[in-house]
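YM 10:42: Exostosin-2 sequence, as discussed on the call
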Amino acid sequence: MKPRRRRKVCAFAFILCALTILLCTALYVSYSKSAGDKSSSLADLETVEVQEVVESAPSVPSSTLAHRKDCSLATCFNIYQCGQSKSGLSVYVHPLYRLVDVNGTLLTPPPSREFLELRSAIIRSRFFEPDEDRACLFLPGVDTLSVLRFDGPAIAKALAHHGSWKSTGANHLIFNLLTSNDLRLEEAIVAGGNHRLSTFRRTLDIAVPTWNPLTRSFVRSNTEDSRVNLAAVNLRFASHSIKSAFFKAAHNRSDVFLLDTCPGEIDKFDAVCDQRGVKHSYPHVLQTASFCVVVDGVPGFQATLLDSLQTACIPLILSDDFVLPFGEVLDWKRFSVKLLYSQLPEAIAIVADKTKFDEQRISLMRRQAAFIWDKYMKSMSSVALTTLRIFEHRLFADRVDEYHVWNEPIKPSYAHAPLFFPRSSPNEGFTAVVLAYERVTSLFAMIRLLSNVPSLTRIVVIWNNPASSPPALSDWPRIAQPIRVIRSKSNRLSNRFKPYDAIKTEAVLSLDDDITMLTVDEIEFAYQVWREHPDRLVGFPSRVHLYNPISRRLEYNSEWTNNVSMILTGAAFYHKYYGSLYQSVLPARIKRFVDERMNCEDIAMNFLIANLTSQPALKVTPRKRFLCPGCPAVGISADSQHLQERSECIDFFSNVYGYNPLRTVEFRVDPVLYKSPHVPYQMKEFPAVGQF
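YM 10:58: structure's back
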């Protein structure tokens, strides 16, 4: 190649390279600007504002620096600050602070990765409010997560630099996973990981999990796997007395792992040795046990609690006053065992009792533990957003989530609240649907009683005896409301739930023909309760299902207990739409089972409603006895095999649905003044409630 030609090629190549560099530079600048625009909404997480003079911090009266134990939501929170947002709870996130003294000495720690993740989650959430003047809560710009990383008085001074602190810290949310007595939080809300019953301000503070960053990379194996060991006990940093107690309890038990620091590896977190000297990887070893013992008082026990949930190991908690994380909304009884500290010696024996903790119950508790970890505790983002949801529920009644929303994994076998019921049903009255067979005397007595109920609009009698005719028209009671008699072609209990055209109201009162013991006030009160809960089954006779660890089956129980999981439809209100669903949606296998056995149509309706709504049935009034005075002991309930057959119904229905949708509760609904002896009878709206 000639020299002149070579120079031209080189010049062209140089120009091409220069243009390429310029193009790449332009793309880089453009991308950087775009990325900067996207990250600007994250409140400049990489920018640190420096406060250089501590002495210039706002003056705070010394009397207000102490942690106020008497604070509550009513006394130490400015609710009027929260009325400017129509979308619920709003949170302003302060810029990050790094406090130094006059000599330039750093007084506050640099923000941890966990604190930055927490801030970022809030800023990206629906709770974030960029305008400080419109916010309900304030998140300070100082990292207060760990007591080990800061000096309490210095942090208190740094907090006082926030303009919104206003000398008391009201409406400020402080995340402090290891609560420090040196940190003067005044009236601020403490989202703490070490709350105690004696100092926990129940309506103001929030108990949160102490998230363990050391297990961030751990991946849990399948929670359905069976576990070869009964329990694992993390004894690292435990006292000699605690170790001795567990060595004694686990004597001659090969299915209990007592885990401690391996010799010469005191600084290694991810390795432990059992009582036999065998080395294990931590927290992986917890996956071999069904229960993980968590002893309050042992350093790091809060992290051990979270490690247990992360590995789907049921926490066996030994504590007298520890406030469980998110215990305000999470049902810890479903995925943990809580014992007093004094029960430490027999703790292993308690969970080893197969009559209390059989394989099925352990499996359910482990799955629930995994669900709770994955949904609420898997990251600092989850912890932060769950904390804000809980506090929002305290402030805004229309944003309160039901029990099942917090505690139930979403199953493909049912949908939550598919019916768009209003919060209260219109006061259009109700239709009484009576299933009658041959007890004419009690039927007529009940009709006369119903006629006095103010909200009754009509009565529909289902004559369920095809072998005989109903009474002549002239024999029926003369009442103001219309009576419609419908003759069934076959004697089926499910006839009571058919969506008859004669039913013109949303509310249906399902009755047996021998329910004559109720009072007018009780029926009217039950209807008003149903209007407030139109998606529920609301009624009088209650029953409960119990798990029998010996037979390993769910059983029907009619004894008087503190629990309710079913309302019998012999005296209960339900929405007429459920009648249509009973005919069209209820599994055909269940309908055939009910018709063939002439039993359990009421249990089937309870299953149907609970499966659709995940809501418990509501019992109203204290009445327990529902025996018809003077009626002969006939019918299916008089059979000695009645309880066994109904237990078989629950077992069969659960198998068809693939799970048991019934919800057990420990409350009933009564009028406010019905047991107030000092209130005059005339002042009570339902004075005849509770009269037996």
